[in-house]
Amino acid sequence: MISPVHTPRPKPGAASTAIPSAARQALLVTAERMFAERGIEGVSMRELARAAGQGNNYAVQHHFGDRAGLAKAVLEMRMTELNVIRAEFLREAKDRARGRELDLRTLVEATYLPMAAVVDEAGRHNFARFRAHVSIHFGPDPWGLIGKLASAGNEVQALMRRKLSHLSAEDYVGRLDLVTTFFLAAIASRDPGRATRSGIDDAGFLNEVITLCVACLEAPRPEHQAAASSAEPAIS
Predict the structure, then answer these.
(1) Using alpha carbons only, how large is the chain's radius of gyration in Å?
(2) DSSP 8-state assignment for residue 199
(3) What dihedral angle (degrees, nearest 10) is formed by the CA atoms of 29, 75, 91, 107?
(4) Local structure of residue 85 (DSSP, 8 states)
(5) Which of 84, 208, 223, 226 is a good FRET partner for 149, with 20 to 30 A between their CA atoms?
(6) Could you report the per-residue pLDDT of 41-73, keeping only the tens digit for each?
(7) C-alpha torsion sign, points 182, 188, 193, 197
(8) Spatial CA neighbour of 209 closest among 115, 101, 76, 126
(9) φ, ψ for residue 180 (rounded to 5)?
(10) Which domains does the chain have, with CATH numbers?
(11) What whole-number distance in Å separates Cα of residue 15 and Cα of residue 84?
């Protein structure tokens, strides 16, 4: 079971006399929330600095250089946290498997459930919505952070790739991108204040979403794609 990772919002003015690391953290958490709510281009750097309790209107530029540098720093912060959570999930899954190969559902859970655990003090999935905006604005891995900061995730992906050998490399990446987009939107849809389906609790909802993710990844390739791939030269 993955416990929620809470990200409290900085108090207004709290960082005005804080050490630089506290100011940096306040900017990161505030940026994640505001980018999640309004998109990467939907908030000015001056407005963001004020919301983070910074007296210096150019605090973002001072700490991160520009908007892209700030988004990258937020992603680095969360990916570092997620790698720890995912590594622990993977270790527990291997212990339960007792030497048996992990099934696809477990690998999908290891990939996505850690992201569902990152919520703010109100239970909102700011990271999920922020991550979706980053993918749209900059691309799925614009700064090459996955290889550097996601060792546990890379291990899970290697295991998952073997489970999905019926997909070409291109199809696998496409399916994974599709499933990731779906998962992030799905968990954000359950945030407080949003209309949700009645008769299903959060655990049941997550279980259903994971089931749909697995089904999407396992689905056979369309016949026209399978025929095309059979004519491709083998890779030695």
Answers:
(1) 20
(2) T
(3) 120
(4) H
(5) 208
(6) 999 999 999 999 999 999 999 999 999 999 999
(7) positive
(8) 115
(9) -65, -45
(10) 5-228 (1.10.357.10)
(11) 27
